[in-house]
Each structure stands twice: as C-alpha cells, then as structure tokens.
Amino acid sequence: MKTLVIGSAIVDIIIEVENLPKRKGDVISKNSLFVVGGCAYNVANILKLLDMQYTLFAPIGTGFFSKIIEKQLIEDEHKIVIKNDTMDNGYCIAFVEPDGERTFVTYSGLEQNFYQDWFNNINIEDYSNIYFEGYKMQNLDALKLIDYLLKLKDKKFYFAPGPVFNQIDKKILKKIMLLKPIIHLNEQEILEYTNETELTYSIKKLYLENKNLIIVTLGENGSISYDGKEFIKVEANKVKKIKDTSGAGDGHIGAFMFYFWKTNNIKEALKFANLISSQIVQIRGTKLNNINFLKELGENYE
User: Fold this and answer.
1) Of 114, 175, 184, 221, whose Cβ has the fewest other Cβ atoms within 10 Å?
2) Which GO biological-process labels does this protein carry (predicted)?
C-alpha cells in the first residue's frame, strides 16, 4: 500500500548568517542557497530514496516560483498530480546560524488552498498511510480537507504540525484530533503548544487530544515516543559537524513512516529515523543525494 503525502512544495531561500539581525539592523550573509523545499516535498524525497510507494499531493500553480518547483519535481521524478493556474506557489526564507539552527519567514501561496476535486486525480483506496503538515492547516480551507479525511476508513494518519502548531485555528485542531493521528514534532513545538515546561508531562497532555502515538525529536538528545502506555527514548547518532538542521524533522518522520511500516516496531523505527536525520544535518539544504546509501539502509538496517 502507498503513502499519501499531503502538503507543500515551495522554494527555500537559505541564507547563512553569523547571527540573526536585530530589529532595524543588518547582517552580511556568507553563503546562500536557492532550492525547492517544503515539508511534504522533503518527506517525499526520503520515501522515494527508500523505495517506499508514495504520492506527493502538493499543488503546483503558475508563476515564478511554481515554474522552479515544477522543473525540480520533474527532475526528481515526483509525479505531479495537482496543477492549478489560479496563483503562484510560496517560498520560505531560512536563516541558518553557525550551529545549524534555523529561523524561518514563510510566504504562503497556492499550497495553502484546497479543492476537494483534487482527490479525483488519485484513487484514495490505494493509500494506507496519509501524512499531512501543519502549514497546510493555517487556512480555513483545511476544514474541507479534514472533513474529507474523516470520511475515510482504515487509514493511518501522520500529522507534523511544525512550528505553526499554536497558530492553527482551534476549530481546525479539534477536527484534526478526531482523526487520532500519530503526531510528530520537536521538543520546542510540543512545549509551546501545551504551555508546559516538563517534557513527559507535556507529551501526556497532548496524548489526551490525539489518543495515539506521539513522537518528539530532541536534537542532540535523540527522540522519544509515547503510545499512552510507555515512553521509548532513543539516543541520537553522533555527527561530525552540524551544518544545517533544515529538513531534519521532515527526514525523521519520513524515515519513521518507512521503518514503522516495515517492522511495526516503534523503537527500531525511531533508531532508523534518528540515523537518517543525523545524515541530513550534516549537509546544507534538506536533500540527501546518496541514493545507494539510503537504499542499503532501507534494505539491510537492523
């Protein structure tokens, strides 16, 4: 069965800085990258490299950024299933500091919208896993998407709210939780959302809403999960040098979905996801290109 990856493909403008500018200030960038990104796109790249069947369900519009994205998707051999000529796609400016930490400014485009007839382009019964991202939930069109998903039977949902978790309308969040999705997020995101300071309490608090598995990435401290019964913590893999943490979370959930589907073992899936994200943080940008390395991991990792 396939995985449906619902979300965005946008242009990432990655700017390396020594420090973030103060208000009214200015900083000089030493390096910059202009690449295609977006949470769903990053997840789809990992699934493709691991030879997991998937469909990237990201709309491609018309305009300057859309042309860049469409060209890249064709080059990557991602099937384009949604074309819409009403507006351009968005972009994200990512400031990356020397320790690899990133700060975002996102301008949303077509990827924020949703039209139910887009689903006419696929056979929804082909998909057992459905991933969707937080950025897709910031528009009231998200209600139409969630209402559609709520009608589906026998699907495993993965929700990656990202840093906009607290910005999602409460009405939309309430419906999202009715899906009982597996939630994947980082430590800062869950603490801010629950307004708590202690991690395990924060996780238990969120579990009361989704009533399903919660996965929290902890950076250099690895990752932790909670299924309502037990916590499972897995240490991080050692890295030589962190260059850029952009896309590490997307790579983590993509790898987790793959290995959890393969083994149905939470701990082993976390180990594999930690390994993949440790590779991503050692490159600039979000895209791993070592296809043979990833395929070998996917086939032989134990």
Assistant:
1) 221
2) phosphate-containing compound metabolic process
The number of residues in the chain equals 302
Pick the CATH number of 2-22+31-300 from 3.40.228.10, 3.30.450.20, 1.10.150.120, 3.40.1190.20: 3.40.1190.20
C-beta separation of 168 from 160 below 8 A? no
Q: 87-141: per-residue pLDDT in tens?
A: 999 999 989 888 878 888 989 899 888 888 999 999 999 999 999 999 889 888 8
Q: What pLDDT does 244 receive?
A: 58
d(CA 92, CA 182): 26
DSSP class of residue 62 equals: S
Mutual orientation of helices 199-210 and 187-194 as an angle, nearest 10°?
70
Q: How do the domains of the chain map onto residue ranges?
A: 2-22+31-300
Euclidean distance between CA atoms 133 and 294, whole angstroms: 24
Token couple for 214: 């919660």
Residue 3, amino acid: T
What are the tens digits of pLDDT across the range 137-173? 988 889 999 999 999 999 999 999 999 999 999 999 9
Beta-carbon contacts of 262 under 8 Å, excluding residues fewer than 6 positions away, are: 298
User: Mean pLDDT of all residues in the chain?
Assistant: 90
